[in-house]
Structure formats: structure tokens, C-alpha cells
Amino acid sequence: MTQQIMIFSDLDGTLMDHYTYKSTEALPVIKQLNAAHVPIVLTTSKTIAEVKAIQKNLHINDALIVENGAAIFLPKALFKVQPQDTISDGEYWVKSFCPPVQHWLDIIAKAPTQLSNLFKGFSSLSIAELAEITGLTEADAELAKNRHYGEPIHWTGDESSKLAFIEYLETAGATILHGGRFFHVSGESDKGRALKWLTQYYKETFQFNNISSIALGDGKNDIAMLEAADYAVQIRSPVHDFPELKKHTNVIQTNNYGPAGWAEALDQILPEPLPIQKCPSNILLN
User: Fold this and answer.
1) Where are the domains of the chain?
2) Beta partners for residue 41, in sequence order
């Protein structure tokens, strides 16, 4: 592996335990990566509001990929010059890859009548309902509802009706990504496309000859990210099998679940000792 390394990590079921949402077993490795200025890019289906709080708790301060690759949030504190094709949004430069959430809500609202009572989207769930379904606190559920690019769907109907609904959405131009508890309705974006864009941007910004990307995830919505990375780590899940990948080289399937598997894989892949990189990763929180 070359000296320049980037980590792209899913959250739920990967860096955060599927049931407790804790990251305890991964914290020593995060500390090691921070000390070496290795970027840890949280790459998730979650919203920017959710991820900012998680990122702070984990002592990470790198770019963020949110809502299944719909947008990349680049901290202005790390990137002083605005990248091309981005907008300014508070403390971030934002690169988006698909239309805003209202576009998809309008399509969902026009679903065939026989399907419309078989699901609830995040936007129609109350904070209390969402907290009950996900196990989140009501405060965290409120952050989860604040979506900008897509709509997660909680399906309550049968499988054949679900397939009919997905067919309707795809015919209307939506892309469907399957997560751990929901399927997500959004545009033609995914974690893999965002990974490629951000890797290239880091390479140009910090003048790296090459970057070795390591992606870690457990779900179907992580497949594009895993296949786009140089090293793909499939985290063992307590609730489903490893999703099938087309990629077969540099693929690791962990023995441990969640953050314990996360630490297990990176201990296996990372060089020892870990060389310090020149990009100013995590400088605000060291």
C-alpha cells in the first residue's frame, strides 16, 4: 500500500453497532488514524445534521458523504478555496449529485392508490414513530428527518407490492438503495460515485501521486462504495448475510460485527507503523 491512505466508512452496522449505535471497539484505531492525519470520511445514508454530531463525538473532522452519496460536505476550515461546481453552505462547500428531496416527494405522492397505504416515508413519520422504528432517541430522530436529497421508505406491505412500488419509482427516474431498515428513494447517485469524486479532489488538492482508498460497509447501499475502493471491507452483520460483490480482489469479510469488525479489518490492512500524511486531516480536533 502507498503512503497516502483514505478511509471511507459507513456508520450504522459498521462504525456504529447495529443495536447500540456505539463505536467503542473502533475508538483506538480512530485515534491512531487521526494521529497520522489519515482522512476518515463518514459515508452514510444519514443527514448532514446527524453526521455532524456523530463526527464530533468520534473526534473526526474530515469531509462527509451523506444521504447515500447524494452530497459531499467539505469543511471550509480544511479547504480554503471553493471547489468548482460546489455551493457555499455555512461551514461547508457542498458538492451535490442529485435533485433536492422535494422532487422525490412529489413522485412518491403520485404513487398508485393501491400502494400508497403500504408505506411511510421519513417526512410523514412523526418524530416519536421514527424513534420507535429506529431505536433512536427523539432528538436524534428529529435530526434524521431533516433530509435534503432523498426519502427513506418504511415498507409495511408484502414483497410483491413492494416490487411494484419500486418499479413505479424507477420508471419515474428514481434510484433505489436498500439500507438496513429502509430503502432510500433518491437520484442517480451512490456512495461509490462520491468516493471517486472525493478521492480525485484530495489527490489534486494535496498533490498526491496516488491514494489507496479503503471502504468499509455492511449493507447493499455500500456495494458501489466497496467496489469503487482499492480495498473493500465487508463488515459482518447480525441481521443479514454479506451482500454479493462483483469485486473479488482486495476484499475482506470480517469475523467480528460492527465496530469490532471495523477495527479488526483496519488492523489487518494498515501498515505498521502508520506513516504520517501531509493532508491536514483532523487538525481542528487534535
Assistant:
1) 5-97+190-269, 101-186
2) 8
Written as one letter, the residue type at 83 is P
Strands (E), 63-218: 64-66, 71-75, 87-89, 92-96, 119-121, 151-155, 175-178, 183-186, 212-217
Task: Give the span between the Cα atoms of 33 and 58, in whole angstroms.
Answer: 12
Distance CA 45, CA 42 (A): 10
Instruction: Say whether domain 101-186 belongs to CATH 3.30.980.20.
Output: yes
Nearest to 281 by CA among 86, 53, 55: 55
Phi/psi for 51 (5° steps) reads -70, -35
| Contacts of residue 80, Cβ cutoff 8 Å, sequence gap at least 6 | none
Residue type, 255: N
pTM: 0.87
- CATH 3.40.50.1000 given to domain 5-97+190-269: yes
83-142 pLDDT tens trace? 999 999 999 999 999 999 999 999 999 999 999 999 999 899 999 999 998 888 999 899
C-alpha cell at 187: 437520484
Chain-centroid distance of CA 279 in Å reads 22
Sheet order of strands, 175-178 included? 119-121, 151-155, 183-186, 175-178
Assigned C-alpha cell, 140: 436524534
